[in-house]
Amino acid sequence: MEETISLRELMQTLRKRMSLIILITLTAILVSGGVSFFLLTPVYQSSTQLLVNQSKSDQSAYNNPGQIQTNLQLINTYKEIITSPVILDKVSKDLDMKTGDIQSKMTVSNQNDSQVVSLAVQDTDPAKAAEIANKTAEVFQKDIPDIMNVDNVTILTKAEVGEKQSPVKPKPLLNIAIAMVVGLMIGVGISFLLEFLDNTIKTEQDVEKVLGVPVLGSIAKIGETKAEKRSRTIEERGERIG
Are residues 68 and 151 in the same domain? Predict the structure, then answer.
């Protein structure tokens, strides 16, 4: 019985504060949408892929699991070299950019222990992002034989700028959805907080709860209703006319 009453009180609180909850939720949605569409600068991403395979002089070892495992272990080393100054300094000189700026825009990864390394670059200009990715891949492929005395890196795909390329961030719809959930949670939280802080007595049930005794009777509000007042006014006007 107590659980039923508690649930009923919760629903009553939500209904009573529904306008506040809706107002806070709509405000969060409008703010998130305005920031996402009008204030945040779109960021685009371009990527290129590099294949780390066996040495060209050791083609017979392709089916050797040990050779493949060695290549997989080298990928982590290659990922560090790609983002190191020894590569990015040359890229920055060719593109007339700062090394730190290029490094902050770049992400190097590989999935499922594959021998394919993905080099992704994010920039507010999609053409610039593709240029940085391609130049970094070219410099890395050219310099890696001198750095590690190997020749086992191949550029699989080059970064390209697509027509009407969509930005990777911000994502307005996702931001609006998150803002709606957060706004709803804040609205509900504030509603329960206001209800908890409100210790005024409004109904007979509040009297029973505070005093712990049943209510034997109540006094109706004394005063004429609007209908009664309107009827009295009409009667007075009739008497004046008569």
Answer: yes
**How far is residue 105's CA from residue 103's CA, in Å, rounded to a whole number?**
5
116 & 182 share domain:
no
Inside any domain, residue 51: yes
Q: Does residue 121 share a domain with residue 54?
A: yes
Q: Are residues 77 and 125 in the same domain?
A: yes
- The b-or-e profile of 13-26 (16+ CB within 10 A means b, else e) is beeebeeebeebbe
Q: Which residues in 209-235 are b (16+ Cβ under 10 Å) and which e?
A: eeeeeeeeeeeeeeeeeeeeeeeeeee
Asked whether the whole model's pTM tops 0.85, one would answer no
Question: Residues 89, 177: one domain?
Answer: no
Give how many domains the chain has, as a whole number.
Answer: 2
Per-residue pLDDT of the chain (242 residues; tens, 9 = 90+): 444 447 777 888 889 899 999 999 999 999 999 999 999 999 999 999 998 875 555 544 445 556 666 667 778 888 899 999 999 999 999 999 999 999 999 999 987 777 889 999 999 999 999 999 999 999 999 999 888 877 788 899 999 988 888 899 999 999 999 999 999 999 999 998 998 887 777 666 666 676 767 766 666 666 555 566 566 565 555 555 55
Is 121 found in the same domain as 14?
no
